[in-house]
Amino acid sequence: MSTPKNAAYGYGEEDAELRRGPWTVEEDTLLIHYIACHGEGRWNLLAKSSGLKRTGKSCRLRWLNYLKPDVKRGNLTPEEQLLILELHSKWGNRWSKIAQHLPGRTDNEIKNYWRTRVQKQARHLKIDANSMMFRDAIRCFWMPRLLQKMEESSSAMKTQNSSTPPSTPLNQTSQASALPPPPPPPPPLEGSLRISKAINSFDHEKNSNPGNYCTSPSIFSSDSMMSISKFPEISDYPATSLHNFDNSDYNPFLRSSFYVDNCGSYDMDDFNMSAMSVMGGYETSDCHMAESNWAYDDMAESIWNIDELWQFRKLQDRNI
DNA sequence: AATTGATCCAACCGCCTGTAT
DNA sequence: GATACAGGCGGTTGGATCAAT
């Protein structure tokens, strides 16, 4: 399939032979078979030798982002979201570096997640996604909510006790749904207690020291944070973050909530834009719940109630 | 049922870095 | 050291899909 764009883009005669756009099943099969025989690498050579009318880059991208067997499909779990938030706060847009710590996730996927979900929230709040304020907001509200969600997921697992089949994650692509059914959920987590402790630790500190809890490392302190022992060391990992995330294919912690519906929602009924407006005096006149529905999407479901917003506002005032 | 707008994500592009010659 | 090439990375685009009207 040679797209009409080729001519418009001014590709050379040789390039005109190249295919662009979505990959076909035949192309995928060809690439998979070639790599099975010859291995990865030498992508330009691969592109020529395999008979694929694609650039080496295109072949590499297709393999790494889609065809490679260990690529994980489906929604990001709360654990993965939490890790992305934490690592991004440390490394910024180093997507490939972040992806190295999320087994089966590609830099492209993480990048898309950040742009479509996280930056969307920043836009709604009219805060620069790279600003300290937004980072604080993430750390103070979003991350604890994800921790809470993880705890709820593990609790749900306990009660469910694997008697019912796992539900399908929302927004699964058609390709993903074509994959074999997932294995049954693992037994209840040994780490859930740790997570609970982390949340309790956070709540305790918030209550005893409400003006300062935003910057407290206790949220992710190593002794209160989940410490499932399978996770390998992450060399230059932030001291305040999630230690010991797993790089193995089978990670009971990650998988535990992978099959939990992503449709649980936090109580956002009492959330309104007047509450939002306390955050740094942002203009909210053109930012309505009805417009954005952001309180109900799967990202916003995990964040922010009025109390926390007031706390956040106090903190901001104090810092000014 | 049709239309429109929003969202998601696969794929592409250009730039940068590392390596071989 | 200069050049060419391959591979990797982050930013962006555009088509497909979903949701709202």
Write up what this structure looks like.
Helix 6 runs antiparallel to helix 9 (132-160), helix 9 crosses helix 11 and helix 9 runs antiparallel to helix 15. This protein has 320 residues and is an all-alpha fold. It starts with a helix and ends with a helix. It has 15 helices and no strands. 49% of the residues lie in helices and 0% in strands. The chain has helices spanning 5-8, 13-16, 25-38, 43-49, 56-67, 78-91, 95-99, 107-125, 132-160, 174-177, 192-208, 252-258, 273-276, 289-292, 306-319. It is elongated, with a radius of gyration of 22 Å. The chain folds into two domains: 5-67, Arc Repressor Mutant, subunit A (Orthogonal Bundle), CATH 1.10.10.60; 78-262 and 296-301, no CATH class. The protein binds a DNA duplex (21 and 21 nucleotides) through residues 20-23, 41-45, 55-58, 60-62, 65-66, 93-96, 107-109, 111-112, 115-117, 120, 171, 173-174, 293, 297.
